[in-house]
Specification:
Elements: E1 2-6, H1 8-14, H2 17-32, E2 36-38, E3 42-46, E4 51-60, E5 66-74, E6 85-92, E7 99-104, H3 106-124, E8 131-135, H4 139-151, E9 156-160, H5 164-174, E10 181-184, H6 188-192, E11 197-200, E12 219-222, H7 235-240, E13 241-246, H8 249-252, H9 257-264, E14 274-275, H10 276-281, E15 293-297, H11 302-319, E16 323-326
Parallel strand pairs: 1-7, 8-9, 8-11, 9-10, 11-12, 12-15, 13-14, 13-15
Antiparallel strand pairs: 1-16, 2-4, 3-4, 4-5, 5-6, 6-7
Helix pairs in contact: 1-11, 2-3, 2-11, 3-4, 3-11
């Protein structure tokens, strides 16, 4: 039984951001058609050292394959000079259950998270959006910027973060990748005010984006928090929004504090939150005018990992990329 091992370099070599955005449309179409079975994500919490492991399983019906991604988020890793978050994914044959690919999935996760926002922007952002505000300057923020620049005519990106050195590092890494004006601002208000698109990509426990600052027509995104007691957008953002979207109601809504907390406050009904697959399939409408505020809450759905991972594996195999090992010679 042979298994192909793909490093981050291997993965990067076979997929681009536009590719990933198209694959998210495929993933959510598959979800909407009921062609996948999503095992609810599970969490294993470590107290010493502090961290959490997240298990994301998914398989496609009719023997078209399945996979499991494991994400480890260990909070003290920055002090150890190793990445705080790491991820791995294993893909298995849908007819025999035999594993065939093992890949580094940190990049896959960053890519598909950004690509999911890029896909949502096609339905929820004004098509003439040119100014992007980003709160946060980590890996998630980077791929949010790349994805939105791939689908919208972004000209200016304003970044606000607690650590200026991280923002400077992000700007330097993006300077040669996208042709936009990149700037670092000292406050959230300076970044958000008059922005067409606002993205929060942080590990904050409490809101970092105040709804009172959003201009009419803003597309607001929360791509960071993933617990029912934490959020990045305050209740005013959600109250003012005409459309509230999430990647999956079944798998993510109970973890989305950006919606759960306002619902507990009586500001919205969770029944009013739609999933992005409904936009992709046409079951629900996206933006209908230039003045509405729209919100997309991203936590991540296993079908995104599976469809993206399978495409990466197929391309790598066709190109002879990666290292094959025999598990049971």
């Amino acid at each position: 039984m042979k298994v192909r091992i793909l490093t981050e370099t291997d993965v990067r070599s076979v997929i681009t951001m536009p590719d990933a955005i198209e694959l998210q449309a495929e993933a959510f179409t598959t979800l909407a058609a009921g062609l996948s079975v999503e095992g609810l994500r599970s969490f294993a919490v470590s107290e010493t050292p502090p961290g959490v492991a997240i298990f994301n399983p998914c398989f496609l019906r009719e023997g078209r394959g399945y996979g499991v991604k494991v994400v480890s988020d260990f909070y003290e890793n920055d002090e150890l000079t190793v990445p705080r978050m790491t991820a791995s994914m294993i893909l298995l044959d849908g007819k025999t259950g035999a594993p065939h690919t093992f890949m580094e999935a940190g990049y896959l996760t960053d890519l598909r998270t950004g690509a999911g926002t890029g896909l949502a922007a096609k339905y929820l952002a004004r098509p003439d959006s040119t100014t992007l505000a980003v709160i946060g300057a980590g890996r998630v923020a980077r791929y949010q910027i790349l994805a939105l620049a791939a689908v919208l005519p972004i000209e200016t990106v304003r970044i606000s973060t607690r650590t200026r050195a991280r923002a400077e590092k992000l700007v330097a890494s993006l300077a040669d990748e996208i042709e936009v004006e990149l700037s670092i601002v000292d406050s959230v208000a300076g970044a958000v005010r008059d922005a067409d698109v606002v993205v929060a990509a942080t590990t904050a426990k409490s809101p970092v984006v105040p709804g009172e600052l959003l201009r009419p027509g803003t597309f607001a995104v929360s791509a960071g928090s993933y617990e029912p007691t934490t959020r990045e957008l305050d209740s005013e953002v959600v109250r003012r929004a005409a459309i509230r979207v999430i990647d999956s109601r079944a798998d993510c809504l109970s973890h989305a504090g950006d919606y759960v907390i306002p619902a507990d406050e009586g500001i919205l009904s969770l029944d009013d939150v739609i999933q992005i697959s409904d936009l992709v399939s046409g079951a629900a409408a996206g933006r209908v005018d230039d003045d509405s505020i729209t919100v997309y809450k991203s936590i991540g759905v296993p079908i995104q990992d599976l469809v993206t991972g399978q495409a990466i594996a197929d391309r790598a195999k066709a190109a002879g990329i990666g290292t094959e090992i025999e598990l049971n010679p």
